[in-house]
Amino acid sequence: xxxxxxxxxGEQPGIALFLDFDGTLVEIAPLPxxxxxDRRMPAALDxxxxxxxxxxxxxxxxxxxxxxxxxxxxxxxxxxxxxxxxRMDGEIRSQLDVPDSMREATRDLVRFANSNVGxxxxxxxxxxxxxxxxxxxxxxxxxxxxxxIALRMGPGVRLxxxxxxxxxxxxGASKGEAIAWLMSHPPYAGRKPVFIGDDVTxxxxxxxxxAMGGLSIRIGEGETCAARRLASPTELRSIILAAAETGxxxxxxxx
Length: 255
Prior knowledge:
By secondary structure, this protein is an alpha/beta fold. The protein is 31% helix and 22% strand. Strands 5-4-3-2-1-10-11-12 form an eight-stranded mixed β-sheet, with helices on both faces. Helix 2 links the parallel strand 2 (56-59) and strand 3. Helix 1 packs across helix 7 and helix 5 runs parallel beside helix 6. It is globular. The model is unreliable at 1-10 (pLDDT under 50).
């Protein structure tokens, strides 16, 4: 079977598809564990991966174990925790060390959450996130605390701010760096990278694929360096389901 991702003229390289998870494959949920993935999507992504010659990966702030659970029984290449861990061909190929100060930071955040209804700490071991979607009035206080902790922890940690969430991640973790790493290895190498995300946490990925001559796509509104937009995760799901059925995915699929 020929690659459905090659143009009819046969002149363009195939696509390497990189997908964020929250706000991209699923709608943002009030609680981190309350997201609901369309039951058709795991099999559709698996079929699409086959038509892409294996060049499909998730690039997410979620840990790999969580994504494996929601996408079961299928297992995909994943750059998890904003690129702090990368699995390819079923093996962990890259994983950043956890700063010793991360445990202390997590304890501080748990104390803050215990004192404020609606604030949630998501301990991902390599990183830790503070969510205030259910307590929007605490945004300023939460951000001030996270910025102070990041400053205290020093250059080994980066503060990643998103939609009603802020996360402390190892400084070397970057969705852009993760995509670049994957693009240097088969089956991604030599293809045109396409990265789809929805948040400020995805901008590094957009910048990376733009620099590589790829296609960056932002879900929803907001300032971005992405070249194109889709209205919602629902629109993206429709594109993925159609592409999985036809075995064809091109730049024009996202127009």
